[in-house]
TrEMBL record:
UniProt organism field: Ligilactobacillus ruminis (strain ATCC 27782 / RF3)
Pathway noted in the entry: Carbohydrate degradation
The protein's name in its UniProt record: Ribulose-phosphate 3-epimerase
Similarity field: Belongs to the ribulose-phosphate 3-epimerase family.
Reactions it catalyzes: D-ribulose 5-phosphate = D-xylulose 5-phosphate
Name of the coding gene: rpe
Length: 220
């Protein structure tokens, strides 16, 4: 399973050190939460932070856009060095166009679903995307509890992938710890985002190791 530490819970005054620490600990992805204060009730940062971190890291930059009309910012994230852009299906009227544009800009695409959004709503674009992100909390904040009722949706995304011979990754985001990562993997998740679990206790190295070990306990 790929572990994607979320810098939302990192030390913003020492971001470079935290990014280095997770890279050395064996993470392959860096999850970067972009919030605009409209789609969610929180503000974080924009492509300028992605640009500043890019020369410091070889991690795969997974940019989760919690913004209205994400199509406006795709060019900026591509120029900043994003590897993948995740857009909420609830945040755009033009999901198909947005995904095509992400690919034209040379990035991997991801469609993101809130806990209240069904897989049905995204089915037309599932054959197009590189990844599907199933939110396992309502977006906007770190440190929330994993919503067990989202597990059936992870399983549904995996079932649909197999039935239609598609090859998207299934990412989960929110409330991931050394227990919930097992539940998510058993249901079909292949990428696990973790923010507060990685950055708010012990060292990021210890926490990432625990996540990797926990996920290995589940056969896939
Ligand atoms: O997108 C989000 C929150 O909206 C996440 O990526 C959080 O950063 C996850 O934080 P934890 O639940 O792991 O603390
Ligand atoms: Fe996120």
């Amino acid at each position: 399973m790929i572990i994607a530490p979320s810098i939302l819970s990192a030390d913003f005054a020492n971001l470079a050190a935290d990014v280095k620490a997770v890279e050395e600990a064996g993470a392959k992805y860096l999850h970067i939460d972009i919030m605009d204060g409209h789609f969610v009730d929180n503000l974080t940062f924009g492509p300028n932070v992605v640009k500043a971190l890019r020369p410091l890291s070889n991690l795969f930059f997974d940019c989760h856009l919690m913004v209205e009309n994400p199509e406006k910012y795709l060019q900026d994230f591509a120029a900043a060095g994003a590897d993948l852009v995740g857009v909420h299906i609830e945040a755009t009227k033009h999901a198909h166009r947005v995904i095509s544009k992400i690919h034209q800009l040379g990035m991997k695409s991801e469609i993101v679903l809130n806990p209240g959004t069904s897989i049905e709503f995204a089915k037309e674009v599932l054959p197009l995307v590189d990844s599907v992100l199933i939110m396992t909390v309502d977006p906007g904040f770190g440190g929330q509890a994993f919503l067990e009722e989202t597990v059936s949706k992870i399983a549904e995304a995996e079932k649909y992938r197999k039935e239609h011979n598609l090859n998207y990754q299934i990412e989960v985001d929110g409330g991931i710890n050394d227990q919930t990562i097992k539940t998510a993997k058993a249901a079909g998740a292949t990428i696990a985002v973790a923010g507060s679990y990685v950055f708010s206790q012990n060292t990021p190295e210890e926490q990432i190791k625990k996540l990797i070990e926990a996920s290995k306990q589940v056969e896939k």
